[in-house]
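In the previous chapter we treated chains in isolation. Here, by contrast, the input contains two separate entities that must be folded as one system, with a combined length of 575 residues.
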Amino acid sequence: MEIAIAIFLGLWLSGASFLAYRRLKREYNVVFDKQEEKEVEQ
Amino acid sequence: MNVYLLGMAISMLVYIVIGIIVSAKVKNANDFYVAGRQAPLLLIAGSMIASYTSTGMFMGDAAQCYDGVFSPIIIFAGMQSAGYIIGAVFFGRYLRRMKVFTIPEFFGKRFASKPMRILATIVAIVTMTVYLLSVMQGIGTLMNEVTGVDYNFCITIALVVFTFLSVTGGSKGVLITDTLMAGIFTIGMVVACLFISNNAGGWFDALTALASNPETSDALSATGRLDGTLYHDGASNIVWGLVYGVVWMSVCMVGPWQSSRYLMAKNETVVVKSAFWAAIGVFALEFLVGISAVFVNVVNPDMPDSSRVMIWAAMNMMPKLLGIILLTGVLAAGISSATTFLSLIGTSVSLDIIGKKGKGDKQTIMIGRIAMVLIAVIVLLLATFNPPSIFWIMFLGGAIIASSWMPVALASIFSKKLTRTAAFAGMLAGFLGCFVLRLYASLSGTSLPVYFDPALVGIVLNVVAMLIVTMLTKVTPEETEARAEMFILPKSEYSVGRAKGVILSTKRSMLIGVGIAVALLILWIIPYLSNKI
């Protein structure tokens, strides 16, 4: 049971970080697209 | 003179001197209320850790762990840490984009609704005043226990110090003193944990001694002791940890004393990165405080008042100088939370209730300062007379924020259909549901089942009210526009390097979970299971 608690907390925190990572990656795509546009223009 | 009193007095003088120095840097309302929106990573992370950590952790949580419910405390501490990560990315960044001064102003602007702002202000002020009161009582108990000086004199001195810091330095000053205090109590706690474990026979030997003793073995088990410290059955103890994990995760996500720090951050990278450091810092502190309190059982298993466990350890298990550092750190934890609460209450009274329309910077700052002093006087009177009927309100702080703010805050960002009337109904239903149920339980002396916690009931009522009223009302163009504004990435964030950096840091932060699981296994679970009788 104690081991289950450690695994649960590990997954809980990593899961939260994964959701955050996905959200940020999607939103910051705009920044990378803009950079690509600039490079193409140049 | 009592050396502990001397240490506390010197530390408070240092904070006052820093407050005076910082106050010279407050040039305008922006500086006073949101630190000029230029605060770096260290100050935001430091302030978030300091605002969360208070006498409640060093006295309340420590007492629970000493009494034998270490595991449920660790469950809630681990779950709440995720709240920082989710809160920063899914709420804090959008909040910052609205360029508001307070969270109630955010709700008002998002829904183009004055009543919404007023309701959020009432919730914020009630919650933070209650918390301030409880922190003050913790500080008073600590100072009285350590120094022997009269309780009322202790709370008055502490109140003068934190009111001075909030009034002179504003949020800029609070960020700096908070970070300094976070440094002091973190160092104090790390050193304390090493000494306490050493005095108990060494880390692993102490775990062995506790696990192999029939009297203390359960204290480190998954369910904790079943003698009624929490509940009389293991399942309820674990569910308690899970319920409080959800409640405090909500507080770490949207609580005013946590998310308001994001308004002061200099950019979104700071918002995201500070949240990760706060998640690690707060969990590490909870673990160190909890396990240290459990270790004290090896040396002194019969403490009559377990809320004094860390004070006893500082005075009896550590060299005097290090004991002074720990106790000064606990005091710093209380004062740092109090400065944040007082500063935010003053800001809300000044900006959300009185408003700054037609007023210059100097006048707005002056109103904020007067509001802080008035609130401090009211809190001092309440704490001095300590009417017993306010005790039940104290348990409400985090529960009210979770039940009234959390669902509305998240829906205000991610729901296109949520209307101002639905948001208002949700916040009110959550607030009343939690408040009334707690009031009923306290007045009638009823012990509610763990799954019927007022915070959970409030969250459910909040969501149900939002869903029903959303179906009956329509979103106005103003609300649609306000919501769309939040999704525009500010020009200042268009930096490829910074975007890559923040994404990389979230990627790395997935390792936090792995790290915490491994740390728990090595430092608690494996040694415990190997020696458990």
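The first helix of chain B runs from residue 3 to 23. Chain B is about 80% helix and 0% strand. Compare these points with the single-chain example from earlier in the chapter.
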